């Protein structure tokens, strides 16, 4: 019976059972893709990071949701590197990480903040009816039109494409009641993996904005705190001149409406970087199925 060390690490928070929980398998060499998917399904958190050796970088990572592999995940990257620092595997400094979108830099500071450099931003306006978007999200379309003249609907990506939906007030973001099937259709229509709705009307006065991320195409109805989306939205607000004087660092809050509050630090200049802390909530071993086991029945 093969077992593998497996952790649950809460990212974008310094408190356990807050922020966004990521699975971390620090030594995944030898695991097959099917075994990785089985482990991710068993952990049943939004993403699990599987770390292996790499010829192109300090280490290789693959990210799996409970249902599929995704190319990039910010909170699982932060969680994995926070664990490696805590475990003494790496020292503070800049480390390279091979992902499905290329080799990225990850900086770990002396005080435990993990900064992930994301892919170059790609931002495109999209022509969608506000009634359709509002109905899909369960938000009054008037709350979207109110800010739409200055901040348009757009698909933004720094490794994973999100439909960015600005909303006028926090009450409408918090009151969103998405229709999962309609959100999926919306994402498919614009080639996005999920929707990120946000308002500059935040809970914490220190926060730049409040966001919620719905990612049904990755098997995640709502992601508590989303690093990849935060980087994309950071690039989006710069692209559309949301600030007269663009801040050196932004603070995005998320997760409060699913009882997993967290904060993402976002810096956008020559590169897009997201940062945060993480704390380990569970450290143990998990049984993995034999590589030849395949009892899945396909309809």
Number of discrete domains: 2
> What is the H-and-E element order?
EEHEEEHEEEEHHEEHHEEEHEEEE
The oligomerization state is single chain
The count of helical stretches stands at 7
Cα-to-Cα separation, first versus last residue: 29 Å
If you average the pLDDT, what whole number results? 96
Percent range for β-strand residues: 35-45%
How much helical structure, as a percent, in the residues? 10-25%
Low-confidence stretches: none
Q: What does this molecule look like?
A:
With 299 residues, the chain is α+β, with helices and mostly antiparallel strands. It folds into two domains: 3-118 and 278-287, Diaminopimelate Epimerase, Chain A, domain 1 (Roll); 122-269, Diaminopimelate Epimerase, Chain A, domain 1 (Roll), CATH 3.10.310.10. Helix content is 23%, strand content 35%. The protein has seven helices and 18 strands. The chain has an 18-stranded mixed beta sheet that branches. A hairpin with a 2-residue loop joins strand 6 (93-99) and strand 7 (102-108). Helix 3 (130-137) crosses helix 4 and helix 3 crosses helix 6 (180-190). The longest helix has 13 residues, at 74-86. The radius of gyration is 19 Å and the shape is globular.
